């Protein structure tokens, strides 16, 4: 899965963030697509300095970064779990994403409407969490009803599953999210198909005012304190500035603008990187004169599976892979020189691909 969904209460800066994401995708546009009908979807390039470095060495015709999909899931409000507003539709959209980017308003601005009164990042987070927990509770109760009979009839698998589901239910009833529930991997496997909304990984965006974009403020600090046990990243950024940066086409203008705000890179890059890592994704490269390209794989994948990312035939007919570590490639500058130095390894089906590997697959057709 490579999909992250932006959620948050109304007027916290979600669309502003999504615009920043989609603008920067448009600017880089290799094969950009945008959809305004259904929930807004954007494909965004994953910035990677290593890709540029390899391209510098190989001088290919094309440079192709890898991408993740970002979905703007607007409209989540109090009462969504009861189907209020377009509640259920939005919850269904969340079910389809692999990770959640939760935008929290940490800026004051009396011109931007807020229905919940004074700025309250922790309260806002809890409103959203509660909606998702209520929905999960509904899911888990239905599921329990379905397997209770089987479990009572002596079905061992159903019985173990029921135990895990009861644990989940109890946890949710205490107003807690599944991601914070301590389950072993066997237990996690059992609830895999339940697609708990609160089981998804979360990244928080503290949308702060301009003055606090480097330091954070009391609101972002309150948020950080509130989520410290969640093992989730909190990214402090100003979505308006990001949207402005992303609109600039001229790289010099962009550099000047960022300089003014003492930024070394767009915060968006940090956000995309964190999302990528949150999803447990890594990158390998292929480097040829036609194309230097980044490919996404899941941490822990073996060489044939990684080959399958390029083409299913590569996986089916996999014979071996020629691998040069990224650092070796940069040190020796060409494949031939790396090979002469004994840095090109021949790896088989069991090879665990490493982040940054430069790969060449051999396969049968
Ligand atoms: P959404 O409803 O969460 O999608 O919120 P929007 O992105 O549409 O933002 C709502 C309003 O807040 C817009 O008028 C934005 O220009 C404004 N806004 C977004 N981010 C910031 C921010 O960091 N500071 C301030 N002052 N306004 C912001």
The gist of it:
The protein has 365 residues and is α/β, with parallel strands linked by helices.
CATH class of the largest domain: Alpha Beta
Overall residue-averaged pLDDT value: 90
Bound small molecules, by name, code or SMILES, are: guanosine-5'-diphosphate
Using the 3D structure, state the CATH architecture of the largest domain: 3-Layer(aba) Sandwich
By secondary-structure content and strand pairing, the structural class works out as alpha/beta
Distance between the termini: 27 Å
Number of strands: 13
Q: Please compute the radius of gyration using only Cα atoms.
A: 23 Å
Q: Which residue ranges are poorly predicted, with pLDDT under 50 across at least 5 consecutive positions? A: 29-39
The neighbouring-strand order within the major sheet is 2-3-5-1-6-7-8
| Overall form | flat
Helix count, DSSP H or I runs of 4 or more residues = 14
Proportion of residues in β-strands: 15-25%
Main sheet record: 7 strands, mixed
> What is the count of distinct domains?
3
Q: Kindly report the name of the CATH homologous superfamily of the largest domain.
A: P-loop containing nucleotide triphosphate hydrolases
Written as H for each helix and E for each strand, in order along the chain, the element string is EHEEHEEHEHHHEHEHHHEEHHEHHEE
> Might you state the CATH topology name of the largest domain?
Rossmann fold
Helix percent reads 40-55%
């Amino acid at each position: 899965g490579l999909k992250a969904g932006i959620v948050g209460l109304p007027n916290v800066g979600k669309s502003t963030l999504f615009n920043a994401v989609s603008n920067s995708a448009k600017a880089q546009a290799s094969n950009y697509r945008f959809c305004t009908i259904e929930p807004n979807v954007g494909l965004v390039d994953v910035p990677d300095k290593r890709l540029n470095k390899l391209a510098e060495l190989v001088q290919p015709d094309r440079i192709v970064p890898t991408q993740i999909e970002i979905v703007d899931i607007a409209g989540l409000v109090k009462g969504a779990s009861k189907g209020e507003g377009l509640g259920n539709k939005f919850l269904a959209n969340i079910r389809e994403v692999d990770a959640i980017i939760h935008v929290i308003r940490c800026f004051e601005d009396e011109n931007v409407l807020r229905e919940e009164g004074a700025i309250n990042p922790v309260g806002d987070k809890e409103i959203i969490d509660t909606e998702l927990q209520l929905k999960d509770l509904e899911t888990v109760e239905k599921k329990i009803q379905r397997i209770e009979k089987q479990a009572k009839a002596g079905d061992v698998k159903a019985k173990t599953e029921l135990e895990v589901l009861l644990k989940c239910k109890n946890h949710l009833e205490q107003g807690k999210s599944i991601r914070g529930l301590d389950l072993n991997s066997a237990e996690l496997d059992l609830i895999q198909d339940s697609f708990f909304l609160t089981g998804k990984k979360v990244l928080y965006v503290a949308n702060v005012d301009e003055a606090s974009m480097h330091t954070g403020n009391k609101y972002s600090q309150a948020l950080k304190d509130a989520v410290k046990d969640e093992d989730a990243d909190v990214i402090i950024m100003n979505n308006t500035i990001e949207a402005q940066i992303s609109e600039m086409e001229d790289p010099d203008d962009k550099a000047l603008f960022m300089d003014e705000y003492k930024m070394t890179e767009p915060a968006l890059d940090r956000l995309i990187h964190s999302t990528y890592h949150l999803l447990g994704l890594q990158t390998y490269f292929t480097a040829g004169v036609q194309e230097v390209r980044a490919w996404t794989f899941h941490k822990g994948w073996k060489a044939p599976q990684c080959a399958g990312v390029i083409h299913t035939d590569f996986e089916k007919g996999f014979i071996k892979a020629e691998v040069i570590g990224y650092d070796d490639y940069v040190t020796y500058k060409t494949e031939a020189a790396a090979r002469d130095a004994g840095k090109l390894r021949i790896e088989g089906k069991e090879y665990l691909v490493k982040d940054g590997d430069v790969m060449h697959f051999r396969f049968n057709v």
